[in-house]
Inverse folding.
């Protein structure tokens, strides 16, 4: 997902949500719950634009326990 194509390039959450076909207003906990069972490669292009917010988002994704099948 290219963070430069969102309304607010400093916030990756609505961009990731929209790219997954969700409402851009989806909150972080809901998005993490939906990502948990997925097997995917999540690439945030231009993450340096989002800086700390992109890092916080990535840390939240990495800390979320996976549902292994």
């Amino acid at each position: 997902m290219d963070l430069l194509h969102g309304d607010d390039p400093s916030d990756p959450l609505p961009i990731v949500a929209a790219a997954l076909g969700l409402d851009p207003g989806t909150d972080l906990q809901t998005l993490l719950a939906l990502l948990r069972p997925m097997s995917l490669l999540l690439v945030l292009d231009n993450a340096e634009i989002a800086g700390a917010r992109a890092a916080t988002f990535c840390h939240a994704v990495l800390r979320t326990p996976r549902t292994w099948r």
The chain has a mean pLDDT of 84.
